[in-house]
Amino acid sequence: MSIEEKINELRKQLVETMGMKWKFTDEEVVRISQQLDAYIVEMQSRRDEKGKTN
């Protein structure tokens, strides 16, 4: 699975979980959000590195 696919999947999970929990501080919501943040940072870092080599 590509990083973009992982990000899209986590976004879907976050939206679904928020729809059920309605609480930004819920453990599961926070966990998914943190995972999503990590993948976004990783993707941005990869793009930055790719830009430096071109």
Write up this protein.
With 54 residues, this protein is mostly helical. 85% of the residues lie in helices and 0% in strands. The chain is built from two helices and no strands. Helix 1 packs antiparallel against helix 2.
**Main β-sheet, in a few words?**
none
**Beta-strand content:** under 5%
Shape: elongated
How confident overall, as mean pLDDT? Answer: 92
What string, H for helix and E for strand, traces the elements in order? HH
Give the number of DSSP strands. Answer: 0
| End-to-end C-alpha gap | 25 Å
Spans of at least 5 consecutive residues with low confidence: none
The helical percent reads: over 70%
Indicate the structural class.
Answer: mainly alpha
Q: Specify the number of helices.
A: 2
Q: Please compute the radius of gyration using only Cα atoms.
A: 14 Å
Indicate the topology.
Layout (H helix, E strand, L loop, with lengths): L2 H19 L5 H27 L1
Helix pairs in contact: 1-2
Outline of the structure:
This protein is 85% helix and 0% strand.
List key phrases describing it:
single chain; 54 residues; mainly alpha; 2 helices; 0% strand; elongated
